[in-house]
Give the backbone structure.
Amino acid sequence: MRKMLLAAAVATVGVAGLAGVNAVSANSDGETLADRLAARFNVSSSEVQEVLDEHRAERKADRQERKSQHLESLVQEGVITQEQLEALETKISELRDAKDELKNSDLSREEIRDELEQMREDFETWAEDQGIDLDEIKPERSGRKGGKFGHKHTDRSDNADDSTEETSEDSDQVSAETS
């Protein structure tokens, strides 16, 4: 019953929006989201944090699975080769590790933002060197305009001479690929 209550509490505060926010980060009074939910629903902060961590891990696994499926479909469609896919997966894993290191560093937010921007630029250069067109591999996000994956993926099997359709928004940082 307590787990159900905690899950409901997590849903009501919109944990989906916490994907890019550390749930344990404190507000100006030093109180974390877990602390606030624990007080509100009369449960321990550790129980709430456990539910938040489980939810975050599930969402991360789901995102990674969708990305993997998308990249596999690009190989099947001939947009990228199997070798490019393997190189891309390795690079994304390296970037994800580097991003995690940044999160755990003593750098300021501005310094982290600058480092992430440099990583994005380096990733774009790397992809170009690998013959990977990043605009071609970004999935279309249903129900959203632009966002993290601002470009639409077109089926190249219909007409190989067609250029890629793009939405009006520019693509976002590589953190969308590595989160």
User: Anything to note?
Assistant: Helices lie at 2-12, 33-41, 45-77, 82-103, 109-129, 134-137, 175-178.
